[in-house]
Specification:
This protein is of the alpha/beta class and 256 residues long. The chain has eleven helices and ten strands. Strands 4-3-1-2-9-10 form a six-stranded parallel sheet, sandwiched between helices. Strand 7, helix 9 and strand 8 form a beta-alpha-beta unit.
Length: 256
């Protein structure tokens, strides 16, 4: 199985790592659109255009069997567009995360944290309500989380203060399950859990593994891993080393 994975930037490396660890024989090709990050404040039409260019690069260069959108905003706005345009299986992070949250919640109160774009799209809200309309869903945009993670401020008192502000709003609503609706957020999972130990945390990077397994595509590859970016950003390299260790990164131009 050859899988193409893309994100607006570095956060999707948490998804890449999860897939790499659980499917060691699959060939994985990752593209971070660092030249145009973030997607969270872009219009739906722009997100679809950017996503189409990312998908086109991966599909045309590596003949992928499946495409994983490791970006919540792109999953929210572009998944149907990509499925129709390219005709390959496309897995986003929204549907698997929503299903896992519904299965996990006991009191039927689920919280979602994400970028402004993901929250505005109501993609998780709609997906959860489609599964079970009786569940109460609460959303919170958390724009400060991404810069804190990328600055390496994960174990810092400022980050704890921001977590208490953002997640505390949802905690007071009585949620028992929280969806990490941005691929940067898994790096804050331990801090969130330590501050709110009574909340079950759903990580979409883990939830999508079952969807990949269900594709039933045979493994004929050798476990190749390649990472590409659209701009040689030093922050990406630093973040990649934090997630994956020493990693080779190549810069490419995908704009048409």
């Amino acid at each position: 199985m050859t899988i193409g994975i893309f994100d607006s930037g570095v956060g999707g490396l948490t998804v890449f790592k999860s897939i790499a660890e659980n499917f060691p024989e699959a060939d994985l090709f990752y593209l971070g659109d660092t030249a145009r990050v973030p997607y969270g404040n872009k219009s739906p039409s722009t997100v679809r255009r950017y996503s189409g260019e990312c998908a086109s690069f991966l599909i045309s260069n590596f003949n992928v069997d499946a495409l994983v959108i490791a970006c919540n905003t792109a999953s929210s706005y572009a998944i149907d567009f990509l499925r129709e345009k390219f005709g390959v299986p496309v897995i986003g992070v929204v549907a698997p995360g929503s299903y896992q949250a519904v299965k996990t919640s006991l009191n039927k109160r689920i919280g979602i944290i994400g970028t402004n774009g993901t929250v505005k799209s109501r993609s998780y809200y709609n997906a959860i309500k489609k599964i079970n309309e009786d569940i109460d869903v609460y959303q919170k945009a958390c724009p400060l989380f991404v810069p804190l993670v990328e600055e390496g401020r994960i174990h810092h008192e400022i980050t704890d203060m921001v977590i208490k502000e953002y997640v505390g709003t949802l905690h007071r609503k009585g949620i028992d399950t929280l969806i990490l609706g941005c691929t940067h957020y898994p790096l804050l999972k331990e801090r969130i859990k330590s501050l709110f130990p009574d909340i079950n945390i759903v990580d979409s990077a883990e939830a999508i593994l079952k969807d990949i397994e269900n594709l039933n595509i045979p493994f004929k590859e050798n476990g190749k891993r390649e990472i590409f970016v659209t701009d040689d950003a030093c922050s990406f390299e630093k973040f990649a080393q934090q997630i994956l260790g020493e990693t080779k990164i190549s810069e490419v131009n995908i704009e048409k």
